[in-house]
Specification:
Blueprint: H1 25-30, H2 43-53, E1 61-63, H3 64-67, E2 71-73, E3 79-89, E4 95-102, E5 112-116, H4 117-121, E6 129-130, H5 136-141, E7 143-144, H6 150-154, H7 157-167, E8 178-180, H8 181-184, E9 188-191, E10 196-206, E11 211-219, E12 228-232, E13 237-239, E14 247-250, H9 254-258, H10 274-285, H11 296-299, H12 305-311, H13 321-324, H14 328-331, H15 334-337, H16 347-361
Parallel strand pairs: 2-6, 9-14
Antiparallel strand pairs: 1-10, 2-3, 3-4, 3-8, 4-5, 5-7, 9-10, 10-11, 11-12, 13-14
Amino acid sequence: MTHFRKAHPKPLAAAVFTLVLAAGASNVLAQSSGAGAASTHSPMAQQQVNSQQSGSQNYRAMRANDMIGMPVVGRDNQRLGTLSDLVVDINTGDVRYALLSFDRGWFQEDAQVAVPAKQLFQSSRADALVLQNANRDQLMSAAVRRTDDEAGLFGNQPLWTRVDRAWGMDPPAGAFGAMRATRIIDREVNTATEDDIGEIEALVIDLAKSKVHYAVLEFDPGWLSPERKIAVPLTAFQRGRGMESDELSTSLTKQRVASMPALDPNWYGRLNEPAYVAGLDRTFFGAGFGTGMADASTMGSGPNTGLFNRLDTDRNGWIDRRELDAMPDLGQHWSAADANRDGRLTPQEFSRLGERGEGRRQ
């Protein structure tokens, strides 16, 4: 299990501080050249090879555990610093910002900068993350102090308004449940009845969508049964009492979690296998396909919403035959699902397809 060492708290004296770039720092970010070849010896490299060989072009997954600490390079492949954390919205699973620690050679002070995750994830490699299209003014406007004071960091609205403006990003819709990934990983999870059900072992990030696809819960059923790993959507969890709480809570019951199937023992090596990802979506996210893990009120979405959104690759709000055929075991039921023969499946039609799947199992 990967554990993160907690830094000693430092007072948040100011949200943004002035940074002076060292000579030539901005030139590296402005230059454009090909990135170096990635090593294929690491587990992350093998995951990317699996994704490429299987033809999966839209879905690219990495564990946040592996990404944190990865080098960050400019477009000319020169090292800039490291990825120190991810800013995750626990209410939606969105990964909004990556926090980068720049090397002292770039700034006169050891700086941490918030960069849009989408900008960084688009050019990820097995051995490094590539920062594209960033200029000095953006980096200076997006600088934040290092702190363990999460309430002070994310409660500072003027800071994040400035960061959003620096990158031309709209403010998040609805309540923004910002947490750092390092404060989610290894955190204990309790049910509403105070049952300790284990801890979060990992966050699996869908790089293409800049979103947490699922959290890996190391479920502890009790003294007489061995622990097992279960995939759970991040939206099933809530922050514990207070922003600085060392626990997460969930409305799932211990009995409900105990009924969920365990992850494949080799889940880490199969992160990007299309068949494995599709099976995981069916089992853990598609009500009517497998366990029907949680009620819509618990998960924050209706039946099959996660799977529907994944199949709707062009984001037009409906699924055509080509998109459904990405999952052959569902594609074969196209005729039954497309009852009005209009060549498309709405979320409601797709939900009924799930109900038929559940009926066949009973």
